[in-house]
Amino acid sequence: MKSPQSIIEKAKKYIVTLDGIPYKIKDIAGVRFVTQFEEDIFLLWEMITRRSGMRVVEVKDYFSNPKRSGYKSFHVIIEYDVNTVDGLSMVLCEIQLRTLAMDFWASIEHSLNYKYRNEVPPQIRSRL
């Protein structure tokens, strides 16, 4: 789960109203599956698409189309119904599918981007 502060920061960044947060911020809740082998990513993807009770809203395939930084992963945004105090409510959730190696790279990239404020020096980027 994203922290309330993180949700508010993201809402401000993307100019989302308080009422719009549940519908516009797609990764308030998240699940990450880390596998050993790349082919397992697609087995999990098949399982997700066959599941009832949730609907795939968006797919971000950084596995087939890695980011410029080398980041690879398979992200799926789903929506599902949750019983709340106010009744049934639709919730968005991000599911990330990646291998151990992809997860390791994502951790390094995330740390570097924060350390260098998204401007990782070219010599470090090329070494990695």
Write the SSE topology.
Layout: H1 4-13, H2 21-24, E1 29-35, H3 38-50, E2 54-61, E3 74-84, E4 87-99, H4 100-115, H5 122-127
What does this protein structure show overall?
With 128 residues, this protein is α+β, with helices and mostly antiparallel strands. Helices cover 38% and strands 30% of the residues. A four-stranded mixed β-sheet has the order 1-4-3-2. A hairpin with a 2-residue loop joins β3 (74-84) and β4.
Oligomerization state of this entry?
Answer: single chain
**C-alpha-based Rg, rounded:** 17 Å
Side-by-side strand order of the widest sheet: 1-4-3-2
Strand residues, percent: 25-35%
- What low-confidence regions span 5 or more consecutive residues with pLDDT below 50? none
Q: Fraction of residues in helices? A: 25-40%
Tell me the major beta sheet: 4 strands, mixed
Short description:
The chain is built from five helices and four strands.
